[in-house]
Design a protein that fits this description.
Elements: H1 9-17, H2 19-30
Helix pairs in contact: 1-2
Length: 52
């Protein structure tokens, strides 16, 4: 599968090095803006009131 999908060094580390590398990649991606929208962390909705 790695042969068919080009990965960045950080993505490859997340595959090869385990959970800590995956967590670091996910944290970095959560604050990275996309070309046409804000960063995923900025898209989070405000917490709403719980339902009765």
């Amino acid at each position: 599968m790695l042969v068919n999908i080009p990965l960045t060094d950080a993505e490859r580390a997340a595959v090869d090095d385990g959970q800590s590398a995956l967590d670091a990649l996910l944290e970095r991606l959560a604050v990275a803006a996309t070309p046409f929208s804000p960063a995923p962390r900025e898209l989070r909705a405000e917490p709403c009131r719980p339902l009765p």
